């Protein structure tokens, strides 16, 4: 029996007179890889910001790993974000004066569990064991994105949220990142991926297409066996 890790009910977000999201109902099962697609202005970024607890809905509910985030204070949402969500950004957001290892350990610090060996292990997993002492400026774009993935994984999150993780990468680095996501999915990780790249979305279990703040359609790419 599949278990729901994430659910939204009537999720709506307004900015003044503009409705960015209009009554979004969606569920993501544990171990499922869902890709969110749609044209610019369709509400993808707004939805991801709410799912990552960086923003709150105007109306509706958002339940993550059994926690109704709609009832939480800002401080409580910060805790949920640190403990349950692994965030991967298109723009990396690495601390420039910290090494790759220190950037990953910083995520541990906010989680109050610092373990250097774990940080080294997760960097080795993304093929950066030989670059742990390098600053972001000494890493290529693909390597920086892999540091972001390591940082997202270090605290064993309930779900991984990724915003255009290959958007700034060349074809070779895109393939490396894709292979990492495929490995994570095969391990039963829950993934929500915002992407414009249909080839990337083809590896997901399901595609949700947004248009003008609504779910225009959903398409099952393949069935997930994770429970």
Question: In which order are the strands of the major sheet placed?
Answer: 6-7-8-3-9-10
In terms of structural class, how would the helical and strand content be classed? alpha/beta
Radius of gyration: 17 Å
Low-confidence stretches: none
Number of helices: 7
**Helix percentage:** 25-40%
Biggest β-sheet strands, sense, barrel: 6 strands, mixed
Number of separate strands? 10
Binned strand content: 25-35%
Calculate the mean pLDDT score and round it.
Answer: 90
Approximate shape? globular
Order of H and E elements: EEEHEEHEHHHEHEHEE
Distance between the termini: 6 Å
Summarize the SSE layout with pairings.
Layout: E1 4-15, E2 18-29, E3 33-37, H1 44-51, E4 59-64, E5 67-68, H2 74-84, E6 85-88, H3 100-110, H4 116-125, H5 141-153, E7 159-163, H6 171-186, E8 191-194, H7 198-201, E9 206-211, E10 214-220
Parallel strand pairs: 3-8, 3-9, 6-7, 7-8
Antiparallel strand pairs: 1-2, 1-4, 4-5, 9-10
Protein name: ABC transporter ATP-binding protein
Keywords: ATP-binding, Nucleotide-binding, Transport
InterPro entries: AAA+_ATPase, ABC_transporter-like_ATP-bd, ABC_transporter-like_CS, MacB-like_ATP-bd, P-loop_NTPase
């Amino acid at each position: 029996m599949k278990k729901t890790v994430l659910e939204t009910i009537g999720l709506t977000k307004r900015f003044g007179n503009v409705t960015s999201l209009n009554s979004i109902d969606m569920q993501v099962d544990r171990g499922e890889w869902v890709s969110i697609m749609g044209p610019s202005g369709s509400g993808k970024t707004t939805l991801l910001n709410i799912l990552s607890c960086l923003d709150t809905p105007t109306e509706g509910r958002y339940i993550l790993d059994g926690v109704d985030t709609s009832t939480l204070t800002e401080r409580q949402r910060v805790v949920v974000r640190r403990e349950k969500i692994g965030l991967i950004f298109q723009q990396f957001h690495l601390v420039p004066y910290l090494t790759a290892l220190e950037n990953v350990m910083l995520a541990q610090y906010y989680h109050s569990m610092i373990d250097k060996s774990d940080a080294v292990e997760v960097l080795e997993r993304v093929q950066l064991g030989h670059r742990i002492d390098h600053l972001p400026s000494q890493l290529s774009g693909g390597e920086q994105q892999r540091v972001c993935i390591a940082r997202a994984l270090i605290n064993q999150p309930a779900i991984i949220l990724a915003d255009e993780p290959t958007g700034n990468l060349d074809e070779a680095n895109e393939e490396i990142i894709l292979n990492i996501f495929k490995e994570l999915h095969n391990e039963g990780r829950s993934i929500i991926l915002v992407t414009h790249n249909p080839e990337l979305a083809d590896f997901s279990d399901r595609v949700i297409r947004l248009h003008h703040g609504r779910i225009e359609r959903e398409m099952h790419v393949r069935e997930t066996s994770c429970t």
